[in-house]
UniProtKB/TrEMBL annotation:
One of its GO terms (molecular function) is amino acid transmembrane transporter activity. The chain crosses the membrane at residues 21-45, 51-72, 93-112, 118-137, 149-167, 173-197, 267-288, 308-335, 370-390, 396-415, 427-453. This is Amino acid permease 6-like. One of its GO terms (biological process) is amino acid transmembrane transport. It is found in: Cell membrane. Its main location: membrane. The gene is LOC104605864. Residues 19-452 form the Amino acid transporter transmembrane domain. It comes from Nelumbo nucifera (Sacred lotus). InterPro entries: AA_transpt_TM. One of its GO terms (cellular component) is membrane. Keywords: Amino-acid transport, Cell membrane, Membrane, Symport, Transmembrane, Transmembrane helix, Transport.
Amino acid sequence: MEISIDNKDLDDDGRIKRTGTLMTASAHIFTTVIGSGVLSLAWVVAQLGWIAGPVVLILFAVITWFTSVLLADCYRSPDPVTGKRNYTYMDAVKANLGGIMIQLCGLAQYGSFIGATIGYTITASISMAAVQMSNCFHKNGHHAKCDASHYPFMIIFACIQIILSQIPNFHKLSWLSIIAAIMSFSYSLIGIGLSVAKVAEKNHNVRTSLRGVEVGLDVTATEKMWRVFQAIGDTAFAYTFAPVLVEIQDTLKSNPPENEVMKKASFIGVLITSMFYVLCGCIGYAAFGNDAPGNFLTGFGFYEPFWLIDFSNACIVVHLVGAYQVFCQIFFAFVEKWCRKQWPNNGFIGKERAVSVPLYGKYYINSFRLVWRTMYVILMTVIAMIFPFFNDFMGLIGAASYWPLCVFFPIEMYIAQSRIPKFSFRWALLQILSWACLSVSIVAAVGSVQGLAADVKTYKPFKTQ
């Protein structure tokens, strides 16, 4: 069936006119950034201390904002305002760098998406189990035996994601991102409020220090080193949104120029995120001291006010439902585009079937999309069940994706697009920043791998509590 579309409804590339705005782009960024990473920041500051903790949080914020500005100019090539659109991060790398860089970018980007969906499944199940335990303690008393296995909740989360994964593409996610962003602000504010209340308690007495957890008292020297490395990885993960920046930019209207709007959205996102992160990290550390838990919302116990604990954990789950889709929809689109290119005449892959849905109208079902997206969610859930290690997993994802996607590729594309002379002063400064971030990523990855190795030694897969 042919559908007539007026030229005024099309963008300069012949596609349906984009409708994204500063608000929707900011919502996508908040949904991506203020995620499960915020829950570990009290633990991060506990490992680094009162001086290094806030400094590391602010330093990562500045670097993230700077490189996001560089990346925003790479959406169009060769000119950042009038050039040809690059629909994905890989397209931008292809247009500016080419060669093996395209494959390396795809490996880093889609690897980070896969890791994030596993991490979000783990985090959502922890929060759902926390709601069950909170209600159990409230009903049966604080001395009752209230254990909760995370596995049933991982399955519930997977069922929700199987349904939402049938949303056709990333451009249809604005409403979900806005809801998820509201949820992320809600549980962050609740965490900050509960931390302030805990600090204000009359008998509040916790150990904090300028250097964080103390060698000989809290940990050994070796454990301190590994924890510091892992904390840096957690911080990197908490700020990462570069893997989806180009895809978010591709949802924006062309007037005003997309790069201008994206730079404003990035500034707003990083600024507000940094404020929340410093507050969550520092006030959370003040509340729990050197014994700060990996997920600071679980550190408040499961008692009173039980309804507030329930609400905050419910907000986390709703937020992660949206964040999961922001990441996996881009990966879905990549795989489906590749399959259509490889088998252009395959009906199973390319054919769309119209189905009437009450209160919605016609919805087009693609058999390949239905089967493969369902299998992807199931596989990620099984992996999450096998390796449910929150802190170490977040640190490893951050370490593996932060340098290549947030620093290396934006800097190299900016150098290529701006034709910055090799060995010039500006080139040297950008390379120093890149190499410094690479060093940080390496030590963070080592710390996270060590933590995962230690967890695996004592862990038995699929063992219920």
